[in-house]
Amino acid sequence: MNQLIMKEKFTTITSTCVPLPMENIDTDQIIPARFLKATSREGFGENLFRDWRYDREGNRIDSFALNDPRYSGCILVAGKNFGCGSSREHAAWAIADYGFRVVVSSYFADIHKNNELNNFVLPVVTSETFLSELFAGIDADPSLQVCVDIERQTVTNLSTGRCERFEIDPYKKRCLQEGLDDIELMLSRKSDIETFEANRRYPVL
Amino acid sequence: MPRTLFDKIWDSHTVNVMDGGPTQLYIDRHYCHEVTSPQAFDGLRRRGLRVFRPERTFCSPDHNIPTHDQEKEIADEISRRQVSALTANANEFGLTLFGIMHEKNGIIHVIGPENGLTLPGQTIVCGDSHTSTHGAFGAVAFGIGTSEVEMVLAGQCILQPRPKTMRINIHGRLNPGVTAKDVALYVIANMTTGGATGYFVEYAGDVVRNMSMEERMTLCNLSIEMGARGGMVAPDQTTFDYVKGRCYAPKGDDWNRAVEYWKTLPSDPNAEFDREIDFDGADIAPRITFGTNPGMGMDIDGTVPSPDVAGDDQSLRSYEKSLNYMGFSVGQRLEGHPVDFVFLGSCTNGRLEDFRAFASIVKGRKKASDVTAWLVPGSWAVERQIRAEGIDVILNDAGFELRQPGCSACLAMNDDKVPPGKLCVSTSNRNFEGRQGPGARTILAGPLVAAAAAVTGVITDPRTLI
User: Fold this and answer.
1) CB–CB of A171 and B18 under 8 A?
2) A61 domain residue, yes or no
């Protein structure tokens, strides 16, 4: 496989968290449209949550979690329906480029979830209870750590010991663990595509 | 076994099912715009690949382009570079491009249907969440990310988990002054902004059956705003009449064979959906949103509702943040509230019928002097139809002017930005914070509500002006 395309393999991650206890965080907040004009994939982390991180004069908004020195780590914890709205993959690029490897929420918007997976950011879906408890725990102690084990498909709040299993499509799990790329895999099956085309019953489409 | 419309199309496009994982789905039509594609073409170059089936991809710049002086070079350098990249990529990879000022240029979700590129029974993708628009024709159409755009260019397939199915039935009839946009905003408010996540929705019932293709497109367009993977309507005579004779539509014998096939697509009578929900069209009034997601909506003559009492801490905090941003409070009536901007356009409401509806209200009236109005046709074809019907004259007489086509103020990637703190009644699809410009506040509505606001300068029930 082409080295340029090979992604970093995903293993167990233990980290402190950055909490965003808000629901329905849309991809326009993750990366506003005016930053979508770049034609490369790099550098989007700088503008991650731009309008929540900085005011209109460009001053840092100290109360926002990403600017709060108490919070750090490679796990972002967000309220339900994370990544709704626009399909822009720039949102996943910004999250990855900023340094997050995992996003924890009680559910994700479909397109954004795929985009995260395709950029080796792991979306971890927990129960509402786990999530609320995690937010409360981080609020009480920002040094709280969470462990995400992709092999066992578990997420553990190391402060309380509460552990939950999360779902991930077995194919995507393998991609993340082995650093595999969808496109290479599909191209290895090109003859299947050609066979499909040749056998279509309604070629008019 | 009885199958749904969705199942029939999905199954007939399945190339493989990955072990315990996603379907490898064959894609009939791929639409491409300038914002979500450059990195995908770079990926192809890095891999040393050509586009596998170039005849299945159609490109049109729409997000970035100005809505005036398109005949000149784009002033903004970064926008210009992105639009040029699309032209260069289309040329390098042999793709059809409807560039700026091309007679077929326009918002990709407007030009696909009007050129007969969008057909029943197809699978359609685009790096844009409003690809669900094309579901109006009885197609499986959905938005994808840039890595997936690259996948489609490389192998004309995509890997997708199979979504669950939902049918939303809208029974009965609509009251006068209620548009497809109001229906969609009503459904989304009931479903909530994430309530259809994981589902592909089929819209059915008499209200949907009686809708024109333009109305069905508005309805399907907004499916993503309740989290649905896509929305669709079974093809029928209305669909066939719309498609027939369009530029890329099948002709002659091909047409007859196509229609015969399309008639087999509607869901079988006993087909089962994972969820089924019913609404009564008579319950729907003209709608507006009051918050910062499309699910936060109310009847135009209503009051800002209290948050769901069952909501947890995050829900309440999010609701409060949203109302703070908008400057509204629980219990407030919005009718009579001053409006600064009005935007008519976008892939949601930028078609001829939307301009007809807008004109029906402003005819014989004058634009309110303190309102800035942007009227942006969805495509050059729409613009030509507007002129051919003399709608432009009605608009001009009322003090409005027509701009050139593009996505415009829907997402403010060009100069059409609503200034901080200003309130815009917009026929577009998203009222997210800053969507129409940093600090801009958006009220989503249909074209009649937009027109009523434009001539009165305040939020006005259009039924009082009909």
Assistant:
1) yes
2) yes
- Please list the alpha-helical segments (H only) found in B48-202: 77-93, 108-114, 146-155, 180-191
Does a structural domain hold residue A123? yes
- Cβ contact (<8 Å) for A34 and B42? no
* CATH code assigned at A92: 3.20.19.10
Within 8 A by CB and 6+ apart from B80, the residues are: B73, B74
10 Å Cβ neighbour count for B383?
20
- Integer angstrom CA distances of residue B132 from A145, B11, B175, B202, B205: 40, 19, 26, 11, 19
Tell me, yes or no, whether B283 lies in a domain: no
Average pLDDT estimate for A135-156: 98
Q: Tell me if A183 and B155 make a contact (CB, 8 A cut-off).
A: yes
Q: How many CB pairs below 8 A link A and B?
A: 205
Same domain (yes/no): B225, B320: no
- Give me the residues paired with residue B14 across strands: B25
User: Using CB atoms within 10 A of its CB, is residue B210 exposed (0-12), middle (13-18) or buried (19+)?
Assistant: middle
Q: Is the ipTM of this complex over 0.85?
A: yes
Of residues A2, A85, A90, nearest to B47 (C-beta): A2
For A33, residues 6+ apart whose C-beta sits below 8 A from its C-beta are: A86, A88, B63, B411, B412, B413, B435
Q: Distance from A45 to chain B by nearest Cα, in Å?
A: 16
Q: What are A160's two structure tokens?
A: 């309380």
Query: Which residues of chain B make contact with A111, given a CB cutoff of 8 A?
Result: 129, 142-145
Structural domain including B28 reads: 5-262
Per-residue pLDDT of chain B (466 residues; tens, 9 = 90+): 999 999 999 999 999 998 778 999 999 999 999 999 999 999 999 999 999 999 999 999 999 999 999 999 999 999 999 999 999 999 999 999 999 999 999 999 999 999 999 999 999 999 999 999 999 999 999 999 999 999 999 999 999 999 999 999 999 999 999 999 999 999 999 999 999 999 999 999 999 999 999 999 999 999 999 999 999 999 999 999 999 999 999 999 999 999 999 999 999 999 999 999 999 999 999 999 999 999 999 999 999 999 986 767 889 999 999 999 999 999 999 999 999 999 999 999 999 999 999 999 999 999 999 999 999 999 999 999 999 999 999 999 999 999 999 999 999 999 999 999 999 999 999 999 999 999 999 999 999 999 999 999 999 999 999 9
Looking at the domain assignment, is residue A194 inside a domain?
no
**B252 and B302: one domain?**
no
Say yes or no: B167 and B314 in one domain.
Answer: no
Of the residues B262, B277, B298, which one is the last residue of a structural domain? B262
Contact B79 A37 (CB under 8 A): yes
What's the domain count of chain A? 1
In a domain, B417, yes or no: yes
Considering only CB atoms, A84 lies closest to which of B121, B194, B439, namely B194
Judge whether residue A26 has pLDDT over 90.
yes
The CATH number for B13's domain is 3.30.499.10
Please list every residue in chain A whose beta carbon sits closer than 8 Å to the beta carbon of residue B188: none
**Are B241 and B366 contained in the same domain?**
no
Please report whether residue B457 resides in a domain: yes
pLDDT for B3-21, tens place per residue? 999 999 999 999 999 877 8
The A residues from 25 to 84 touching B (CB cutoff 8 Å) are 26, 28-29, 32-34, 36-41, 51, 56, 79-81, 84
Q: How many domains does chain B have?
A: 2
Residues B168, A48: Cα–Cα separation, whole Å: 36
CB contact under 8 A, A205 and B148: no
Judge if B97 and B208 occupy the same domain: yes
In a domain, A173, yes or no: no
Assigned domain for B279 exists: no
Among B36, B151, B321, beta carbon nearest to A182: B151
**Dist. CA A102–CA A124, nearest whole Å:** 7
**Domain housing A153:** 13-168
| Residue ranges of B 286-345 with Cβ closer than 8 A to chain A | 293, 295, 312-315, 317-318, 321
